Amino acid sequence: MADRASPPHPTRDPAEDFLFHLYRGGELLQDGRLEEARAELEQALVLSPADAKAQDLVGVVYFRLGLYPRAIGVFEKLVHDHPEAHEPRVNFALCLLKTGQPARARQELEKVVSAHAGHKRAWGYLGLAHQALGDADRALHAFTRGGHDAMARRVMDASGGTPTTERRPSFHEIDRSADLTPSSALPQSLSAGWDALLAAAEATPARAAQAATNTTNTKAHSDTPPRGPLSPTDLGRRHTLTFPAEGKIALHPGGVLLVAATSGFAVRPSLVRSMAYAGGLKHKPMMRRMRGKSLEEPLGGEGDALVELEGRGDLVLAPPADHELVSISLEEEPLYLREDLLGGFEGAMSYENGRMPAGEGEAVGMVQLRGPGTLVARLRAPLLALDVREGKSSALHAPSVLGWMGRVIPRALPPSEALGGARSFVVFSGEGTVLLHGR
């Protein structure tokens, strides 16, 4: 860019070479050229492995590429090496939030706000952590302390209350120009990394403030001795389902998902416990797609194929026996999921069908889904995630593979190459994360 100083040219001096790659990597990150930025920054780390600035920038790049386990490893090391610095800890917590670990994220963020009570971003992410853990009151407090009025209103709207605090700047108005590492001498490009991290945090599905409210109410009732039989009216009021804000999906403490659809929702009929649509229910069958073309095959397979419910409506979805329903929020990054595990997804999302080779001419039906939007998977616990790295292929038993994300490529492993001639193994190469069943 014309208004940006040119990085120093590489020299034979390792120290100057390090600065060149660090500076260049920061510029490429700011321009959104992530793979190029990654190459420069990883080269900088080769020249100076202990440099906190380079580590931090690499962590941001990994985060934006969807390599969350690697980003967590980077920021966790920074927190260990620089326990007094708050920004690496905030980064670490945000990665934990993105990967569905709100309890660990809350622990880290509480350390930050206890030492830096004015850290607005930390308060905002702490609110998200409380919300994911079902504590609406503490989420509201955190959003309010951080000045995230829009987020606070979302909690209040979902719980049927009204804000009592003075209006403050919205989450989008947070100052994002602060450095991300212990040093204030980092390249200005780090602000671009924060933009990506903040966007990802807001995309993380709030675990339904209503679920939090119901959990709180349930605990309160359990602590109070019963006063006698309930009337039918009281019984209904106590157990009435309250849906989240439009366009949101909430997990109820009872294990069901509450869906407030705005632009249609594709779902397996077997999961639906109730549905209420304004103006009448309109639906159409979903068909498989391949290379942009619709196939004359039902999406999800015969017998319980997915159906798209059109328009706005409220749905209650319940998992099959021995399963749980998991909602997964996607932005532009794709997720590959086994077709038989797909329970539903928002109508605005795009999808393509494909197959995972499983050996000897066999294949497993897969669906590639891309956001923005939220999908629902029906899974058996426990769910595990395996980090796949460049130059180190991973062989997995095909029936245990649930899906994957990132830049990974599967291929069937011939029995002649497998340990003891084992069959039905798949080799994943590239970089990303493979989801698998732990049993």
TrEMBL record:
Residue segments, region Disordered: 158-183, 207-235
Origin superkingdom: Bacteria
Keywords: Repeat, TPR repeat
Compositionally biased residues, Low complexity: 207-219
Start-end of Basic and acidic residues biased regions: 165-178
InterPro entries given in the database record: AIM24 (IPR002838), AIM24_sf (IPR036983), TPR-like_helical_dom_sf (IPR011990), TPR_rpt (IPR019734), Trp_RNA-bd_attenuator-like_dom (IPR016031), Ycf3 (IPR050498)
UniProt keyword Manganese, yes or no: no
Renumbered ranges of TPR repeats: 52-85
Protein name: Tetratricopeptide repeat protein
Organism from which the protein derives: Polyangium spumosum
